[in-house]
Amino acid sequence: MKLSNSFIAVKKISSPVLRSQFSEDELTRTAELILKVEGIINPLILRITSAQSYEVVDGHFEYYAATRAKEIDSQKGEYIGAFIIDPDNEEVFQEQVELIRKREFGDNEIKKKLESLTAQIAKLAESVKKIENIFTNIEKPKRSNQKKTQKRTSEKSEYDTMTVTQLKEIAKQQKIVGSSKMNKGELITAITNILKS
Questions:
Q1: Are residues 7 and 75 located together in one domain of the fold?
Q2: Which one, 1, 82, 105, 143, has least CB within 10 Å?
Q3: pLDDT tens for residues 15-56?
């Protein structure tokens, strides 16, 4: 078999990828799970760099999680499952890893972008709704105020053109007390007040 499965001492492995590229919280959570089951579900893929050392070809996150597991418990976390690439077929394995990861990465990226777009659309719809509510609330009072003002203006101008005798007749019909002694301005005020109520 050109790909052999082994348990390798974590201290013999290195990675060209920096640990700082990964979240320490996620590494610690994964390390705790590795210790709990005493193994890893996704073995590292390693190349031999010397008689006693290996370099990660794929599984850099898993490697750093295994390193963290060793920091937490040096006995349980001493070894990690790994596939070791046959040096004669390293290029073929490297190509396979790249194709698989590229596909996984592409699918995940599309999914993330769709989720992000969906969230943005939902936020935008919410903002539009808030703006519509603001405009609706602003317009309603204005319209009713305009109508009241127009009504008062039209009523006032209508009564202004009447004679005192006509105003007294309307006041009499509305049963306004003391209208016979009122002047034109008082009659208009009394009539408009009675019609409002």
A1: yes
A2: 1
A3: 999 999 899 999 999 999 989 888 888 888 888 888 889 999
Q: What is the pLDDT of residues 85-141, one digit of tens each?
A: 877 776 777 777 677 666 655 555 666 667 777 777 777 777 777 787 777 777 555
The structure tokens listed for 31 are 């390390």
One domain, residues 166 and 149: no
Whether 37 and 93 have beta carbons less than 8 Å apart is answered as no
**How far is C-alpha 107 from the chain's CA centre?**
21
Strand partners, 82: 6, 44
DSSP 177: T
Amino acid of residue 98: E
State whether 20 and 51 are in the same domain. Answer: yes
Q: In total, how many domains does the chain have?
A: 3
Longest dimension (CA), the chain: 122
Range of the domain at 144: 88-153
Does residue 6 contact residue 82 with C-beta atoms inside 8 Å? yes
CA 128 to chain centre: 16
What is the number of residues in the chain?
197
> What span, in angstroms and rounded, lies between the C-alpha atoms of 17 and 56?
9
